[in-house]
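A brief tutorial aside. Many learners find it easier to grasp structure tokens once they have seen a single protein encoded end to end. The record that follows does exactly this for Dioxygenase. Read the sequence first, then the structure, and try to relate runs of similar tokens to stretches of the chain.
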Amino acid sequence: MMAVEKSQTSRFLQQLGQAIPTPSAIVVFSAHFDVKHDVIITAGQQPETIHDFYHFPDELYQIRYPAPGAPKLAQRIATLFADANINAKLDSQQGWDHGVWIPLRLMYPQANIPIVQISINTRIGAAQNYRYGQLLAQLKNDNILIIGSGGISHNLAEVFKRTKTVNGVDMMNQFRHWVEDKLVNNDIESLLNYQQLAPHAKFNHPTPEHFLPLMSVLGASGNTRANKIHHDVEYELLALDAYSFS
């Protein structure tokens, strides 16, 4: 809903796009591009806007984000994966899912920066998604912005439950603070094992797709220490904290 409603996070994203140097291209790992097998990389010249959600106001389905693709960059990324013996396929038909266009429309409303989207894979664990990001670390030197689009917590079922878990907010905050501590102290090993080590990991992420983009960006950071640049919680349980690695 931040695409059409003002919020702390929508204002943060608008300001962020103005505050950081304008990138020459953007690479996005999104929670909503979860692929079972090979890595898929968008390679179209002008990908479509995907409205991959249901039962929201009609105005959301009218939004288009006509940002161009970056086929040459996509091919370069595919080569980086191939050199690491990871099978990556270029997809000229895949469009921008809402994990891409909602934040980028706020950051860069002109839709004039080329984008490449790379799939995540919830079936292979945090360490391998981290490895995906590591392969892209060199792109930072070319003024390419790498984004992980997900959520520090994402238990939508709990948000919509009639009778909430009594200590749910505390469980969310314990998890959120644990993640912050590990990120700012560069404790990568703990983060890669968050499902076993973090407090209430399963409550905050019943499924892992919204956490794994953070792992990919962590890999791409080249072990750079994280800086917390935004904090927000919506519906009491959805933590929307943001971190930069530079």
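Self-check: The chain has a mean pLDDT of 95. If you spotted this yourself, you are ready for the next section.
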